[in-house]
Structure formats: C-alpha cells, structure tokens
Amino acid sequence: MKEENEELILHNRLKVVRAEKNLTQGNLAALVGVSRQTIGSIETGQFNPTAKLALLLCIALDKTFEELFYF
Amino acid sequence: MKEENEELILHNRLKVVRAEKNLTQGNLAALVGVSRQTIGSIETGQFNPTAKLALLLCIALDKTFEELFYF
DNA sequence: TCTAAATGCAAAGTATACTTGACAAAATTT
DNA sequence: AAATTTTGTCAAGTATACTTTGCATTTAGA
C-alpha cells in the first residue's frame, strides 16, 4: 500500500452495532469464528480485518458493509 | 478463523468490472496504491484483500462492496 | 458491596496479505 | 506477422491479521 492511502484509516461501527444486538465480543467472535481478541482489536481500530471477516461480520450483524465500515 | 467458515471463499467480480471500465490491472493497482500482482492475485482468488483495500477498490470502481464481493 | 462477566492490553507465535523482480504466455495493436 | 502491452505465476522477503495465554481494569448483576 503506497503513501497516498497508507495514512487512510478504515473506521467501523462494530462496537455500537454489536451493543444494539446485546452481543458480547465473545458472542460475536463465536458467531463469525474468530477469537474474542480479534473482535476487540478491530473495534479499537488496532487492526483492519480481511474482507472475508468483514463480510461475515456484516452478515452476523445484519448490516451492509457500508453501514459497518467507512473512511 | 474456525473450521465452519474456513472453507468459505470470498468471491469477487473485480475482473469483469475492471474490464468494463477499460482499466488494466496496472491502472487499477495505481489507483488504489498496491502492486499489479496484488490485483492479479485477488482476481484469481489467490487471496482475500483487507477490508481497507476492498473499500478502496469499491471507490475506484464506483461499486458497493456487495456489488464487488460475495460468498 | 461482593462476585462474576466483559473488556483492554501485551507478548510471542503462526498464517497470510502484500512487495519487488523476473520471465513466459496470451492478448492487443500496428 | 511483428511488436508491444497485459496477464499469470513463481520465489523470497516484509508487514500485519489472527491465535493463544494471561492478567488487570471496568462493567453488570446478585
């Protein structure tokens, strides 16, 4: 990834949407098949999920990608 | 990623959409700031982009995530 | 208020996304 | 048909997504 887009940060509304569904990080993690820490790290912006995991999260939370992720 | 979703493959319509816009892999790569090989590997399903790159591709190709990526 | 559940964070390891360079094959252009 | 562009793929290296374990802090429930 070149400089121009390197600084761009992908934000997400995971924490809010997850809370609306009354799911814990552990619950959501189990739904999509990753560890609790992975969910936590995505929520706190420590990392940038794969597109596959992002789409699994959209499905689990019944949202479009654009509703959950944005620049 | 656990067994249940491990086998799931994220497909995409990158090659077709890119061709519709008359872009080469190199053109598109430059637009989003990655190497030509990265675009090629995503098109041939060899790998699964990050959500950030996926969204950059959506913007470059003027498509929603769901129009470009699917299970 | 006491207890239990949920979250944040860190370290060390593994898997894989992404890089550069290179070459051959296929497609496009002249 | 010859030249040029585009694509597929391979190899070796780097960056980072994701794992597990563990512990401290915060939040929620009894």
Fill in the keyword field for this structure.
DNA-binding; homodimer; mainly alpha; 59% helix; 6 helices; two-stranded antiparallel ribbon; 71 residues
Structure, described:
Chain A has 71 residues and is mainly alpha-helical. Chain A has one domain: 434 Repressor (Amino-terminal Domain), CATH 1.10.260. In chain A, 59% of the residues lie in helices and 6% in strands. Chain A is built from 6 helices and 2 strands, in the order αβαααααβ. Chain A has helices at residues 3-6, 14-20, 25-32, 36-43, 51-61, 65-68; strands at residues 11-12, 69-70. Chain A has a two-stranded antiparallel sheet. In chain A, helix 3 (25-32) crosses helix 4 (36-43). The relative contact order of chain A is 0.22. The mean pLDDT of chain A is 96. At the A-B interface, helix 1, helix 5 and strand 2 of A face helix 1, helix 5 and strand 2 of B. Chain A binds a DNA duplex (30 and 30 nucleotides) through residues 1, 24-26, 34-38, 40-41, 43-44, 46-50, 53.
Brief summary of the model shown:
Two copies of one chain form a homodimer. Chain A has 71 residues and is mainly α. Helices cover 59% and strands 6% of the residues of chain A.
Tell me the layout of helices and strands.
Two copies of one chain form a homodimer.
Chain A: H1 3-6, E1 11-12, H2 14-20, H3 25-32, H4 36-43, H5 51-61, H6 65-68, E2 69-70
Antiparallel strand pairs in A: 1-2
Chain A binds a DNA duplex (30 and 30 nucleotides) through residues 1, 24-26, 34-38, 40-41, 43-44, 46-50, 53.
